[in-house]
Amino acid sequence: MYELDYAKPATLQDALAALAADPEARPLAGGQTFLPVLKQRLNRVSTLLDLSGLGLATITRTADAIEIGAMTTHGAIAASAEVRAAIPGLAKLAGWIGDTQVRNCGTIGGSLANNDPSACHPAAALALGATIRTDRRAIAADDFFLGMFATALDPDELIVSVSFPIPRCSNYEKFRNPASRYAMVGVFVADGPAGPRVAVTGAGQGGVFRHAAMEAALAQDFSAGAIADVATSAEDMIGDIHGSAAYRAHLVGVMARRAVEAAQT
User: Which residue range is the domain that position 160 belongs to?
Assistant: First the structure.
């Protein structure tokens, strides 16, 4: 790790002012990806701005949505009675992330901003039609994820909260790498205000994506059988030492059918 400074802003305005004043400063959310990167000297920053003091670790239920503050940990989401009651698939997803230490340090805002191609929360945001609220605007999930590790965020823009519309039903199924517990393939299925949506993580070369063919089939019949014959092309899938592109394409179908079956119970 290179030498750097550390600061803990007390307000969102202080954090934004520090980012604007120093282009080499970087925000620190849960740090589960960023700190290892710094330790390996793969990135160099002037100042780490710890966001844990900004009061953004909140979960609020409204009539038709769950609003989650950006600094809310995966563990807090998994344990939340409000999330479990309204969007059980989201609580299940959060409870499957990493291990106990990761779940109690990593945050939803950090996960979405990083947009790791094998991360879980991007699939939930995309399938549920979430809105990512920043210090200056609201971004629909469909417009937020721009590719592997790429988002619509400006360099000095911070996520403040994420609003998830409450669906009729939802579920998440993940085929986990046994070592890292990242998704080799994760599929989030939701039947919400905009109809059925299916989001896949861990498999696509461009990161998280919606499965349009499955969504069309589920719009006609929301059942596992409706997508049994919906194929996923291996052409755009990731292939690596953990699994070939064809294997991941097969797993997309398996995980999607399991997700739909469990969503209806």
Answer: 59-165
